[in-house]
Write a structure and sequence with these properties.
The chain is mainly α. The chain has six helices and no strands. The two termini are 26 Å apart.
Length: 161
């Protein structure tokens, strides 16, 4: 779900821009957002140096799995989107939908699999903060897209508590 939201944010950012950004610009935007997310999570979790040392490799692996899983899901979706879907027979369309549903299910399982991995390296209260930080970052990104359509996305300023 987190990967889906992140990819959707990237897609909305790209689609909201008046001209199609270059591959180089998309990579820069992705790296900037990734750096902002890392800073946001680090701040929200208040990781000690020891925690950060064991947390980030686990997080990076989970995030990589989530991105790969989401890409498979979107590739399956693209196989029947729009005109492509209209030209498929009912049997072909059903097969493409089955592939998409299986990929979506696998994508959701990636996030489910994160919890025990994070519990091995962080106390439960920080794992809870991680999930909260993930959601908060997504909300800030969406809010920024709504407030500044057509501009590369980034998190909105943090709310005062």
């Amino acid at each position: 779900m987190i990967a889906l939201a992140a990819c959707l944010l990237m897609a909305v950012t790209v689609l909201a821009q008046p001209q199609k950004p270059s591959e180089e610009q998309r990579k820069k935007d992705f790296e900037r957002i990734k750096a902002e997310k890392i800073a946001f999570i680090t701040t929200e979790l208040d990781l000690s140096p020891e925690e950060a040392e064991v947390f980030w490799p686990v997080y990076n692996q989970c995030w990589k799995e989530a991105r790969e899983s989401h890409k498979k899901m979107m590739d399956a979706f693209d196989a029947f989107r729009g005109k492509k879907g209209e030209s498929l027979s009912e049997k072909e369309l059903e097969a493409k939908l089955d592939e998409y549903i299986a990929a979506a299910r696998a994508s959701n399982l990636v996030m489910t699999d994160w919890y025990p991995k994070f519990r091995k390296v962080l106390p439960v209260h920080k794992v809870a903060k991680l999930y909260q930080a993930e959601e908060a970052f997504q909300m800030r990104m969406l809010d920024n897209i709504r407030k500044h359509p057509g501009k590369p996305s980034g998190p909105a300023p943090k709310d005062k508590k």
